[in-house]
Amino acid sequence: MKKFMNSADDFLKESLQGFGAAHQDIVNCHYDPNFITRATPTKEGKVALISGGGSGHEPMHGGLVGYGMLDAACPGFVFSSPTPDQMLAAAEKVDSGAGVLFIVKNYSGDVMNFQMAAEMMQGPNESVLTNDDVAVEDSSFTTGRRGVAATVVVEKIVGSLAEHGGSLQECKALGDKVNKNSGSMGVAFSSCTVPAAGKPNFDIGDDEMEFGVGIHGEPGRRRDKMKSAQDITNELLEAINEDLKPEANEEILLFVNGMGGTPLTELYLIYDNAKNMLDKKNIKISRSLVGNYCTSLEMQGASITLTKLDEELLKHWDSSVHTAAMRWGV
Amino acid sequence: MSVNFLIHRAKEIQAVIDANASEIEKLDQEIGDGDHIFNVQRGIKLVIELEAVIKDLPMSKALNQIAMKVLSGIGGSSGALFGTLFMTMAKGNDIDNGVDYKKAIEIFADGVEAVKQRGKADVGEKTMMDVLIPVSNCLKKGVEDNKHVKEILNEAIEVAEKGMFSTKDLLATKGRASFLGERAKGHIDPGARSSQLMIKTVCESVLNS
Hints:
The complex is a heterodimer. By secondary structure, chain A is of the alpha/beta class. Helix content of chain A is 32%, strand content 25%. Chain B has a single domain (3-207), classed as Alpha Horseshoe (Serine Threonine Protein Phosphatase 5, Tetratricopeptide repeat), CATH 1.25.40. Helix content of chain B is 71%, strand content 0%. Chain B has ten helices and no strands. In chain B, helix 7 (101-119) runs antiparallel to helix 8, helix 8 (129-144) packs antiparallel against helix 9 and helix 9 runs antiparallel to helix 10. Chain B is globular and about 50 Å long. The A-B interface holds A 33, 76-77, 80-86, 108-109, 112-113, 115-116, 138-141, 143, 218-219 and B 68, 71-72, 75-77, 79-81, 83-84, 87, 118-120, 173-179.
């Protein structure tokens, strides 16, 4: 294992400290329990959005805390769910009285821990559970489909609604809608190594890829031999389209997400190849996002997310956002 | 059952788990990701370390402290499941005015039911529920049938062992063993083994007291 680290025990703490210091104009990092909030307090009457999950998926979720997106994020240890004490401390800090919306990826540990936090919380709260991964119905970490990169899209769009005065129920409903309008699938060329484990999560041959991989390197649909980028892209999109069924002339967001170890050069190449295929099907790409947003440590690989956009979603996608990882309109 | 009872059982469980640590670790390496024994040992250690804080507290507060410690200290799914067990037990009716064996069985059974709901796992899915659910049912039935406490506990020890061995031939549909499919067959679930050992330790300790 080669990693920039001093000790496995301090890995998360030092990374959080660096993140907090580098973006002190946007966020505040709190420790024991660990959570990240905006540098400024929640506006009175604004619904507070809190997300979280295991670390190792950066910039998700800490990098998505800021104006127009999350109010707080709770990072667990690498690939391990955060715990209710973190969510409760974060909620106490950012709840302005209008309630808290938890945005949770459908992974068993995350679901159970957020559920417990919601039960223990005194004030009004709701949860949106993302499950956009079309690869598998049940994985080694979940019951039902996994929540992956579309979580970023949910956080952007619901974040905008909350910023513009949406109520807790409206935010919850919009979150569910964005999730339902989204489908994702990923592929991995290499494994990733959890610092505390010290060895790769799985073995994969030089000429192999894991098709439909999850964001911890957990297995997907099948192990395949390497193929051309266009073939891989076509297969990912076919799987998503089969599930999402976008109609001709329907407007979509095309989101090409890097898993951490694949260069932007290749992510843009995937974007080009995806556009080729979607153009042929007359599906209208009206918005785009390309980059490393929902990563799996140093894993080489990428995922594609499509989100069907209507006027409401478009408006909230376009509105201003100012976070460490996403910034436009400001 | 007193707070002191809980602390002493935790210490006995620690000794038994430590003595069987390599076996449990091996089971987990075969079908899991190898961290189960580490989580269990850490959880027990955290509970024992609470001794000074909880020893003079009423039962409900002590159980709640244990729940929060396990929840935040173990983390992940295991923390949530064991946290749920203790948190539910802490909510038991009137437990600050003394807990006899019938009350202890009642709150344990409520706890197991809550864990079942939380993890959405039932008997037959190759998890610790294959031990906890039959044991809980056996204890409740024993009280209903007015059996002697010694008889109930002896049966519980047997039922726990049977449940643990039953996981050997099951396919996993929950937890990390599930992606192994047929490959997980023939291996005892490590969570079933560790919970069977804990139940055996507590039951034997009461029987020998």
